[in-house]
Amino acid sequence: MTEEKRTIDPAVAELLFTCDEGEIGTAFSRAENMKPCPIGRESACCKNCFMGPCRLTGKDKEEKTGVCGASMGVIAARNLLRAIAAGAASHSDHGRDMAFTLLAVANGEAPSYQITDVKKLHAVAGYMGIPTQGRSKEDIARDVATQALRDFGQQGHTEVSYVSRATPKRQKIWRDLDIVPRAVDREIVEALGRTHIGDDQQVQSLLTHAMRCALGDGWAGSMLSTDISDILFGTPNPGTTRINLGVLADDEVNIIVHGHEPTLSMMIVAAAQDPEMIEYARSKGAKGINLSGICCTANEILMRQGVSSAGNFLSQELAIITGAVEAMVVDIQCIFQALVPLAESYHTEIITTSPKVHIEGATHIEFDEHRAMDIAKEIVKRAIDNYPNRGETRIPEIREGMVAGFSHEYIRYMLGGTYRASFRPLNDAIISGRIRGAVGIVGCNNPRTCHDLSHAYLVKKFIENDVLVVMTGCGALCAGKYGMLTPEALAAAGHGLREVCETVGMPPVLHLGSCVDNTRILTILTEVATEGGLGEDIDDLPAVGLAPEWMSEKALSIATYFVASGAYVIMGVGNPVEASSEVNRFITDEWEKMVGGRLEFVEDPDEMLRRSLAHIDKKREALKLVPWDPDRFKKDTVTWDEALGFGTSVSMPAAMEVV
User: How do residues 253-262 score in pLDDT, each as one tens digit?
Assistant: First the structure.
């Protein structure tokens, strides 16, 4: 496979040539050499008991059953529900850890941390009905953390606290369908119980619970994680940073943090800036310490600290292949087991830090928030000690500037100012037709499709069509690599979108954070609906969610809680329930009848674009808004390439020719 078909990232392509020459395996080469199982890929396989695994194949496969009599629809629905439960567990367990950290801070047991954003603490307390008047921030934080932990494990006829943040229309839909999450853990456990051999055997019942399980993630676990991170580390404001493998330094100690949890990475940021540590690095022959991130840990520290990012999910192996990384420090999620054997050919030390994530052959230094700074300094010191072992390096001279840090609070302030913070100007711009609609482009990378291509192409096309783009996770990092997260990208936007963004002072593509921060998008959509003029709820809005290069179970949970909240969601790469026409009908047409949102799997980026714009225009028509006219606000124009200066550090025009 040519590099153009593997990736559009020139830094990744440069190192993949090195890998091919040296016969070094990566996710790209493994994906080429291992064909996906066609039976499992489309969910025509059940392994929930040991009478199987049962494979339903052939032209009449939808008429066949497993040994227990389970139909294709039930098998596919059970598989989807189990994947959603695993995804919800991953993100929500992250939220639980954040709640424990907040509780430790409130009790004075985690001296390395502090309550940074008291205003956000008071806002969260308000959502939970916790009094704040005349109380210390520690007392409020203790009650917030306690209630958050209760939302994970409470019993009886209960509801998670944040249901009240949804619109009244949405709350009624959930209660009428009996899909309000009672507690995060309860819905995940029930999902696993329902899918055991001999339990729930009705597609409708299984997929209705899938929504309730996912809602426990979106409107509790993940949303709590985002809010508590803001309380502890500060609510993000926009700032500049750099991205891609060229941020690695040839004459400094390079430490990469990789994973998803901010508790450790924030401490490593502080430790790497400690004068004592910097002086120690100089004693080993380095000029200093250079910290960068990969995946969503990168998003956490670049959003709040402006720390550079070395890339997204599929860049993790390539960072080691540069030969310039002294330590890659990982916590949870999206971490390749292949990193350890790969690092054996270089000097890089892989350090695992979570009690939930051990990798054979890695160094394990377990993180404890009660001794956070001591552990962070131990890790930084190990990296420094490894610097003299560095051999030849091959760092691509490719990096790009970017702007990140757009919390929903900052967007509200940006639109209305300190005293009139509001989403009203955004609503008015959509009503007038200056902004056609909005899309959230999120999710992973997947070596089964060209790395970064779908994300970059869709961002380009949407802003050309006056569609405001918000992004999280590895998709946001992709946009950063190609200059799409800079003010210069405004020149390539449609006339109406450009006019609004210039007036407000914002770029047309907004980086909202890590994948757990997709709940910021939920909050924005809810506030836009509540503001008025665009219907009563998320399902009325001219908005679409896309995950063009998804690969993880978390993505399925995220997609499902957005659908259950009323959003139209399109996912790329392939359809994990393709084998069952019954399940596909249910997650599209039936879910739309029930909750107003639908889930579709579409591989072609042009078809994703077509369906998204058609949906946006359909919602505009239903709201009786003026039809979108690309020339209505026409002024001077400039081409995309002229706007972003491609052909210098990033050769995007050649990459786009792949489409």
Answer: 999 999 999 9
Q: Are 295 and 4 in contact (CB under 8 A)?
A: no
End-to-end CA distance of the chain: 16
For residue 160, the SS3 value is coil
Is 297 contained in some domain?
Answer: yes
Q: Phi and psi at residue 219, in whole multiples of 5°?
A: -105, 15
Q: Cβ(497)–Cβ(508) under 8 Å?
A: yes
Residue 241's Cα: distance from chain center in Å?
19
Contacts of 3 (CB under 8 A, 6+ apart): 13, 16, 17
Q: Are residues 250 and 269 in the same domain?
A: yes
Among all chains, which residue has been given the structure tokens 């439960």?
85
Distance, in Å, from the CA atom of 340 to the CA atom of 358, rounded to the nearest integer, reads 11
Which two tokens mark 462? 């949407």
SS (H, E, C) 13-73: HHHHHHHHHHCCCCHHHHHHHCCCCHHHHCCCEECCCCCCCEECCCCCHHHCECCCCCEHH
| pTM confidence score | 0.95
C-alpha 639/C-alpha 101 separation (Å) is: 48
Q: Look at residue 418 and tell me if it is in a domain.
A: no
Structure tokens at 178: 């009996």
Q: How many domains are contained in the chain?
A: 4
Q: Is 376 inside a domain boundary?
A: yes
Question: Alpha-carbon distance 211 to 553, whole Å?
Answer: 14
Range of the structural domain that residue 329 is part of: 245-389
Backbone angles phi, psi at 144, to 5 degrees: -65, -45
The model's pLDDT over 266-277, given as tens digits with 9 standing for 90+, comes to: 999 999 999 999
